[in-house]
């Protein structure tokens, strides 16, 4: 296959709803791409000589629309020796949600919204503590908002992870940013976790409340009014976003970008905010607009979901790195943990 035909094949797959999940150029000049769509995965490769570089891959493209390929199971990734058998057995994935640690404006009790405020020292400690709780849970991909408090939380949490992979922020804002942040070692790439930042996961935009003191605002407008602005589903604060408006971008982003990764078996961590996460949890737990009113998230507490057979199962918050219960949730998590124990004993 020529390079032109290779690119045409990618275009055809994209026009059928496939998107590029991962791709890399090897040092020998070969290109390898993985495209996924609703549980189907296609791997294609182009070698310098213009033909597919993998034994099986040339026919996978033709079969893509009629057969479901096995889903890669990164749960077994500690040893990087995933066998075809273990891939076939499982298509589950872990999803970790973390609200950022305490910010300087949380400490001062100010409405923050989309103002980009960093963590306090306590927030830093909370993020590290959160990292300890999830240190035995596989993470292949991290999503954060565009705000520093969520990004700090994700990075600090990963310093505690036993797998010791390096979280790397993806810079796709321009071709130059993309090209200047390339990594040229496949081995190094395997030891990295891509961190994708998305403004859609930002805190709800709090409008004219941003920067105001929460207590003073309640004294001025009344406790009920302020509670309605803060916790109701569809009543926006003055010139700000309601939870419903926040959900329109955050849940849409989750469905379009994050869910396909879970479907393909990738274990995902999302570090975001009180309200962007409330909207996502409302979707995951199928909460009504009444039920979501009483949903409160603490800073720096990770929540674990297992995604299996198209369903999200809430598993609560891992209490500590030694908590046996969490790892008994699924065989894959237990196996992942066992492999970490073997690798790092
Ligand atoms: O100020 C904010 O941005 C949020 C989160 O801290 O406040 P609230 O508790 O009202 O959702």
What does this 3D model show about the protein?
- The chain has a seven-stranded mixed β-sheet with strand order 6-7-5-8-4-9-10, sandwiched between helices. It has a three-stranded antiparallel β-sheet with strand order 1-2-3.
- The protein has 345 residues and is an alpha/beta fold.
- It contains 14 helices and ten strands.
- The chain has helices spanning 3-15, 57-63, 84-89, 104-107, 121-133, 148-158, 175-180, 186-190, 214-221, 223-231, 243-263, 274-284, 324-327, 331-344; strands spanning 19-25, 31-37, 40-46, 93-99, 141-144, 166-169, 192-197, 268-272, 302-308, 311-314.
- The longest helix is centred in the C-terminal third of the chain and has 21 residues, at 243-263.
- Helix 5 packs across helix 6 (148-158), helix 9 (214-221) crosses helix 10 (223-231) and helix 11 (243-263) packs across helix 12 (274-284).
- The protein folds into two domains: 3-69, no CATH class; 88-344, Phosphoglycerate mutase-like (Rossmann fold).
- Strand 1 and strand 2 form a beta hairpin.
- The site of 2-phosphoglyceric acid (2PG) has 9 residues, from helix 12.
């Amino acid at each position: 296959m020529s390079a032109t035909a290779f690119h045409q094949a990618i275009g055809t797959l994209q026009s059928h709803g496939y998107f590029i999940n991962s791709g890399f150029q090897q040092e020998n000049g070969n290109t390898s791409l993985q495209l996924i769509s609703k549980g189907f995965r296609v791997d294609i490769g182009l070698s310098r000589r213009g033909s597919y570089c993998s034994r099986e891959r040339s026919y996978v493209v033709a079969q893509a629309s009629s057969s479901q390929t096995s889903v890669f199971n990164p749960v077994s990734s500690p040893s990087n020796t995933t066998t075809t058998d273990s891939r076939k057995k499982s298509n589950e994935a872990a999803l970790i949600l973390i609200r950022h640690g305490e910010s300087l404006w949380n400490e001062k009790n100010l409405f923050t919204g989309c103002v980009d405020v960093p963590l306090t020292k306590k927030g830093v400690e909370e993020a590290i503590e959160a990292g300890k709780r999830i240190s035995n849970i596989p993470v292949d991909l991290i999503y954060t908002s565009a705000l520093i408090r969520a990004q700090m939380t994700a990075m600090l949490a990963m310093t505690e992870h036993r797998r010791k992979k390096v979280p790397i922020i993806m810079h796709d804002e321009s071709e130059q940013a993309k090209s200047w942040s390339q990594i040229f070692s496949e081995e190094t790439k395997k030891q990295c976790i891509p961190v994708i930042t998305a403004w859609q996961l930002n805190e709800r935009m709090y409008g004219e409340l941003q920067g105001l003191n929460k207590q003073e605002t309640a004294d001025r407008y009344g406790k009920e009014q302020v509670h309605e602005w803060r916790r109701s589903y569809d009543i926006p604060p003055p010139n700000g976003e309601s939870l419903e408006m926040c959900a329109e971008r955050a849940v849409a982003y989750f469905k379009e970008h994050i869910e396909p990764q879970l479907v393909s078996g990738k274990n995902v961590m999302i570090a975001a905010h009180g309200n962007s996460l409330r909207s996502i949890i409302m979707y995951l737990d199928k909460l009504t607009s009444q039920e979501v009113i009483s949903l409160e998230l603490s800073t720096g507490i990770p929540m674990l979901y297992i995604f299996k057979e198209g369903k999200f199962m809430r598993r609560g918050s891992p209490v500590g790195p030694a908590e046996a219960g969490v790892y008994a949730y699924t065989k894959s998590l237990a196996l992942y943990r066992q492999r970490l124990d073997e690798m790092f004993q």
